[in-house]
Amino acid sequence: MNRKLANETLNRPSIDEFKKQNKFPLKVLLNDIRSMANVGSIFRTADSFNVEELLLCGITAKPPHRDIQKTALGATESVVWRYSENAEETVKLLKLDGYRILSLEQCEISTDPRNLKLSPEEKICLVLGNEVEGVHQRIIDLSDEVLEIPQLGTKHSLNVTIAGGIAMWEIYKRYLSFQV
Phi and psi at residue 178, in whole multiples of 5°? Predict the structure, then answer.
């Protein structure tokens, strides 16, 4: 029989231990995410993948807020985050700091996340866009590469939390492969 594990047997770090862990050199920028439930869910996913920092930009809601907490389940306490009004300026500063900017969007020229090439020393910023408008064209223009998740159905896009989770997983897998 295969038994489900109880939470206390998962050996997860405490918030203090988590904050002291070495982070993957991945920042995730939320570009005008309007749903607080989506923001909370992305916090939780960022915690799961041990990202360096969440960058909340534009109209993206900031903690503390009950509607963010509902889906974050405490990840707003473990994940480092900061707010910036202007996503474009934030991206420019990240580029100056050596970050490779990867926007998740549907564009004429894009890369399937499964085909993403990274090097061990690379610092990445993944940009996730607004639920309706996506990543702003100004940010696309500043991006080093655009990732697009292949889709076979009738809908035009995935929910930003699902798409962000898929992209973070693909980036995370590459960082893990460097540790072998």
Answer: -75, -20
Distances (CA, A) of 153 to 94, 111, 147, 166, 174: 35, 19, 18, 17, 27
Residue type, 29: L
pLDDT in tens, 86-139: 999 999 999 999 999 999 999 999 999 999 999 999 999 999 999 999 999 999
The domain 20-178 is placed in CATH, from the list 3.40.1280.10, 1.10.287.70, 1.50.10.100, 3.40.50.1360, at 3.40.1280.10
Q: Which two tokens stand for residue 59?
A: 């109209």
Report the predicted TM-score, pTM, of the whole model to 2 decimal places.
0.96
How confident is the model over 17-42, as a mean pLDDT? Answer: 97
Q: Which of 46, 81, 51, 47 is nearest to 63 (CA)?
A: 81
pLDDT at 180 over 80: no
The position carrying tokens 């920028």 is 29
Helix 160-178 crosses helix 36-48 at what angle (to 10 degrees)? 10
